Amino acid sequence: MTQTQKGPAADDGLLKVKSDALRLLAFQPRSVEELRSRLKLKRYPDDLIAQAIDALKRQGLLDDTKFAKLFAESRLYSRPTGKKQLETDLKKKGLPQALIAETLGGLKDYDEKKMARELVQTRFHRMTGVSAEKKKTRLFGFLKRRGFGNDVIFAVMKELFSETTSEGLE
Fold first, then answer.
1. Is residue 103 classed exposed, middle or buried when 0-12, 13-18 and 19+ CB atoms within 10 A define those classes?
2. Based on the structure, what is the number of domains in the chain?
3. Same domain, 6 and 54
4. Tens of pLDDT along 57-111?
5. What CA–CA distance (Å, rounded) separates 141 from 89?
6. 0.70 cut: is pTM over it?
């Protein structure tokens, strides 16, 4: 008799966890680890969280591989960043390093140097009345904060400043 009484109560708890998980996923796509931590904040038992996550995975509603690809591609268009920053952002989402490496390697049309060049081009031309050294410092800091590596930054800066000196804009 106690088995039947525990069954419906446990099913109600699982249903509530699944319902909250679906509501969280409706707001924005999430990684498994992100969803797990959000559900823990709601003080659900770990076993119910695990059951709900397993159920969502089976239904195809929760997939870290798809999430990582979607997140990375979205980030490149909404807020262009370097690979270092993108890697950091994916780590924060709780994704395993192997998946992050696979995702970053699989990005199509991702030219970090071209992206950095496009980001600084408009900023550079708006900097009027600023010395070349200050421009370099500001642009370097901007690209560094966006997660671009030094090699990419120096290559872009070299191109940018060699173009302006050859055009006589300095």
1. buried
2. 3
3. yes
4. 999 999 999 999 999 999 888 888 998 999 999 999 999 999 999 999 998 878 8
5. 19
6. yes
